[in-house]
Amino acid sequence: MTTTLGAFVLGTPDPPALADFYRALLGWQEVDRRPEWVRLRALEQERPGLSFQLETDHTPPVWPQRPGTQQMQAHLDLQVDDLEAETERACALGATLEEHQPQKDVRVLRDPHGHLFCLFLPGA
């Protein structure tokens, strides 16, 4: 028996809207779309997908983390070739750049529904 990661799932109050953001950011294709669930896949099917499920009470994490606040339990790391250009493109699509940036070769951003993700250069 083999276990393989099939997808990473983000909870959100609006799965179709958040999927549209990541589809534009990643250039992936949509393979399933319902009001409560959307699934994206890379063109290379061997990679894990990214899915979005309805969570009406989603609370975005606090960044940087502080005791007694909603903690980040996971985030996406997205490798890019041009950090500044891809940061600008992500923001144009609806992401926001976080004030706290822990490394010079990584950018911490939030997607339109408050999930944190990082853009980073190869080797970072």
TrEMBL record:
InterPro entries: Glyas_Bleomycin-R_OHBP_Dase, Glyoxalase_6, VOC_core
Coiled coil: none
Domain of life: Bacteria
Name of a matching Pfam family: Glyoxalase_6
All residue ranges annotated as the VOC domain in the record: 4-124
Annotated SUPFAM superfamilies: Glyoxalase/Bleomycin resistance protein/Dihydroxybiphenyl dioxygenase
Protein name: Glyoxalase
